[in-house]
């Protein structure tokens, strides 16, 4: 039997259990340890997820010589220090986005990863829906033609009410941008990945609809949907955006625009794009991820189903089931983790990774910085 990697997970809020589940589903790794803010919580989560080792300080986990890979699933402000310490401890690192809150921090992590020759990855899981890779291959093979324009959105409604609250609303923890940094970063990474084109300039407009929110006096997990009474909260000002629309100029002259909104009633978690080319259009929606619409001018539109027999070979590699057996959100993370683990197990650190590395994380920090600057100045800003 091939060697299985030993994984430690830092943080078990909303995204941590998704990492735990899909690390196991990859069949390439065993999750042997987790870190939480205190031992009581750590033991409770370890019992729930059947994990043998628990820590309340991530640095203690890093001292464990058995752990090969560390998944960082903590709040944003902790990513840089944890990723840096993970690499310096000689562990491979898979980090949630955003990689860091500043360009300087991201640059530092890139330098350390290169020096240490360790595997580094960012959890841009939306890339790993099979039809996303098929769409990328269609563009690469010139099935779509010259790309004229791009439109899209990432819409959620989990912050619709002023009683909805999360640490993601606090800029000291989540960073200077929320809707763009939290979900816009996924859309930006996705569209550059699918098209193979780089964004050159941005023009952004931000809005915060709830200027104040009701902050719980005790912890509430993201996406928990727990209701509060008047005695459970305090009014706090909000300094991050609920909504943003960004116009895009790409290096090759392509134009684009996208919207992110975390107060869009009726949309739970919808990533959407439309790519208009000289031969056809491509349309994809993450809430129906097993369908890719191909739009035509002179004949009926097509719907390509997520069926390995209908997709290019590059997409078949991340299609685990036959046509009609749907794959979704969790499977995307499983495929990403499997590619990361396969790369580690192969042992050739000179090979070009197919998964999103810290370079992709750095790219999103740079893009978000430019978008925030544009929102503040009301001007087009170059992505440098």
TrEMBL record:
All copies of domain Gfo/Idh/MocA-like oxidoreductase N-terminal, residue ranges: 5-122
Matches recorded under InterPro entries: Gfo/Idh/MocA-like_OxRdtase_N, Gfo/Idh/MocA_oxidrdct_glycsds, GFO_IDH_MocA-like_dom, NAD(P)-bd_dom_sf
GO molecular function terms noted in the UniProt entry: nucleotide binding; oxidoreductase activity
TM region positions: none
Residue ranges constituting the GFO/IDH/MocA-like oxidoreductase domain according to the UniProt record: 132-282
Pfam families named among the record's database cross-references: GFO_IDH_MocA, GFO_IDH_MocA_C3
Keyword Oxidoreductase: yes
SUPFAM superfamilies: Glyceraldehyde-3-phosphate dehydrogenase-like, C-terminal domain, NAD(P)-binding Rossmann-fold domains
Superkingdom of origin organism: Bacteria
Keywords tagged on the record: Oxidoreductase
Protein name per UniProt: Dehydrogenase
Organism: Leptolinea tardivitalis
